Amino acid sequence: MALKKDYSSDAKTCKVTFIVKKEATRDAQGVTIAGDFNSWSSTETPLKKEKDGSFSVALELEAGKEYQYRYLVDGCRWENDWKADKYIPAPFSNTENSVVVCIPSAKELKSAEKPKATAKKTTAKKAVKK
């Protein structure tokens, strides 16, 4: 499992890619994510199954906040993210929730401010017949 974060240039949003590795899914048919960002809906946010057997989804989240979440595998098995930023006790069960922290560090803010590299357009010169 893994988290990838990419902050917008104004650091107001954070694109978080949630990844569940194949080893964690035990050949699952489907994985969804439930959390603060979708009112803990166990059906609203499915992850896409990748060719390598992992599952992933990218969500745009408001920066400056922390979000609790868990994965639901095949509609019956709850899993935490092995690479979550932290874990906190779940309020309604005897377990913990994963937490993604969308509060950019100074390093992440600097990185977000840098302009993204763009590919240069090149034009081919036409051969001139004489």
Summarize the model shown.
The chain has helices at 22-25, 106-113; strands at residues 2-7, 13-20, 31-35, 48-49, 55-62, 65-73, 77-79, 86-89, 96-102.
Structural key phrases:
Immunoglobulin-like; four-stranded antiparallel β-sheet; 130 residues; mainly beta; single chain; five-stranded antiparallel β-sheet
Describe the structure.
This protein is mainly beta and 130 residues long. It has one domain (2-113): Immunoglobulins (Immunoglobulin-like), CATH 2.60.40.10. It is 9% helix and 40% strand. Strands 3, 6, 7, 8 and 9 form a five-stranded antiparallel beta sheet that branches. It has a four-stranded antiparallel beta sheet with strand order 1-2-5-4. A hairpin with a 5-residue loop joins strand 4 and strand 5 (55-62). Residues 121-126 have low confidence and may be disordered.
CATH architecture: Sandwich
| General form | globular
What is the CA–CA distance across the termini?
63 Å
- Under the CATH scheme, which class? Mainly Beta
Give the mean pLDDT.
Answer: 88
- How much of the polypeptide forms β-strand, as a percent range? 35-45%
Q: How much helical structure, as a percent, in the residues?
A: under 10%
Unreliable residue runs: 121-126
Tell me how many strands there are.
Answer: 9
* Category from helices, strands and their pairing: mainly beta
Determine the CATH topology: Immunoglobulin-like
Q: What sequence of helices (H) and strands (E) makes up the elements?
A: EEHEEEEEEEH
**Rg, nearest Å:** 20 Å
Q: How many helical elements?
A: 2
Q: How many separate domains?
A: 1
CATH level-four homologous superfamily name: Immunoglobulins
Largest sheet: 5 strands, antiparallel
